[in-house]
Amino acid sequence: MRIARFSIDGNVAFGAVEDGPDGLVLDIIKGIPYADFELSGTKVPLSKVRLLPPVLPNKVVAIGRNYAEHAAELGNEVPDVPVAFFKPTTSVIGHGDAIEYPPFSNELHHEAELAVVIGRMCREVPRERVKDVILGYTCANDVTARDAQKREKQWARAKGFDTSCPLGPWVETDLDPADVTIQCTVNGEQRQLGRTSEMVRSVEDLIVHITEAMTLLPGDVVLTGTPAGVGPLNVGDEVAVTIEGIGTLTNKVIKRG
Ligand code: MG
Q1: What is the pLDDT of residues 53-102, one digit of tens each?
Q2: CA 204 to ligand 1 centroid distance, Å
Q3: Residue pair 53/167 in contact by the 8 Å Cβ criterion
Q4: Domains and CATH numbers, the chain
């Protein structure tokens, strides 16, 4: 099932994305998708609503250098222990929202990533239970101020500025994430193309590693790293992240007003 979060007539709702006679429709969900829920049968055309970030995470935990080719392109080794960092909740935007070019950077980069959405509170998750704590998957862009990342020891500003975490367009609950294509285009031109099977550490490895340290809550998001091909974003660019079996997350880059 594809679960979208959207606003309609000033209200926020979740809906299951389905094919309708004239395009995609949303079957409005009764309740929230982290517990047992029912579909209401009330359907609205997707074109009539504004999609919101598919989740409002309590935290976004991101993993760096999880594709060997990408680590190499920036002159880095794959680390012995996964590099983990946070992106704040204020960095999260949805499909169609604008990425605001931050004033302290002259080198903004796209990073297409598979995002894991957590479905239940968990800590110290054993490998064989990882699938039980995952609600589904969505597309992410770990937008990075690369110059600030090189300049500053911690990446809080470089990867945590407002609008640096586009997520969407919806959560796919039935995906097997082991080997799907992940692609990034800028203005329609392909920049990144990889497969999740190239990840150094799998989704299971990453959830075990993170929950060894901290509790993950329903709606929390784990970013799993980006394949090779990262590169610049400029004001006016349209960047799209497409993951096989999920869909496409599109955002435009604007100057911060
Ligand atoms: Mg990244």
Answers
A1: 999 999 999 999 999 999 999 999 999 999 999 999 999 999 999 999 99
A2: 18
A3: yes
A4: 2-51 (2.30.30.370), 60-255 (3.90.850.10)
